[in-house]
C-alpha cells in the first residue's frame, strides 16, 4: 500500500497503468480526470481506474488531498506527454 499526498494545486500528468488502480481518498478534496471527464473526490471516496485508461489525479486547487492505493511489484505505469 502506498500513501500519496498532493499539495494545493499539485497533480500528476496524464498516465496509464497495466493494472486496475483503486484510490481511497483519506484527506482533503481532489480531482480524478480521464480524457472524458473530471470528477471531484473527497474523504471516503473510492475510485476505480481501469487498466489502460488515460488519467490524472491531484488536489482540487484550494485543498490538499491524500489517497492510498495498493500496487503489485510487477505493475507498470506509463506517463504520457501533455
Describe the protein in words.
Helices cover 0% and strands 54% of the residues. The chain is mainly β and 82 residues long. It has strands spanning 2-6, 15-17, 21-34, 38-42, 46-49, 55-59, 65-69, 77-79. Strands 1, 3, 4, 5, 6 and 7 form a six-stranded antiparallel beta sheet that branches. Strand 3 (21-34) and strand 4 form a beta hairpin. The chain starts with a strand and ends with a strand. The chain is built from no helices and eight strands. The radius of gyration is 12 Å and the shape is globular.
Output the helix-strand order: EEEEEEEE
Number of helices: 0
- Global structural class: mainly beta
Q: Low-confidence spans: pLDDT under 50, at least 5 residues?
A: none
Terminal residue distance = 28 Å
Major β-sheet profile: 6 strands, antiparallel
How much of the sequence is in beta strands? over 45%
Mean pLDDT: 88
Number of strands: 8
The Rg value, from CA coordinates, equals: 12 Å
| Overall geometry | globular
Helix content: under 10%
Question: Can you describe this structure in just a few lines?
Answer:
By secondary structure, the chain is mostly beta strands. The chain is built from no helices and 8 strands.
List keywords for this structure.
82 residues, mainly beta, 6-stranded antiparallel beta sheet, two-stranded antiparallel sheet
Amino acid at each position: 500500500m502506498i500513501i500519496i499526498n498532493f499539495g494545493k494545486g499539485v497533480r500528476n500528468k496524464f498516465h496509464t497503468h497495466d493494472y486496475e488502480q483503486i484510490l481511497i481518498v483519506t484527506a482533503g478534496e481532489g480531482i480524478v480526470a480521464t480524457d472524458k471527464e473530471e470528477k471531484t473526490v473527497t474523504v471516503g471516496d473510492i475510485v476505480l481506474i481501469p487498466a489502460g485508461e488515460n488519467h490524472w489525479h491531484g488536489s482540487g486547487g484550494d485543498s490538499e488531498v491524500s489517497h492510498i492505493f495498493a500496487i503489485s511489484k510487477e505493475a507498470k505505469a506509463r506517463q504520457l506527454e501533455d
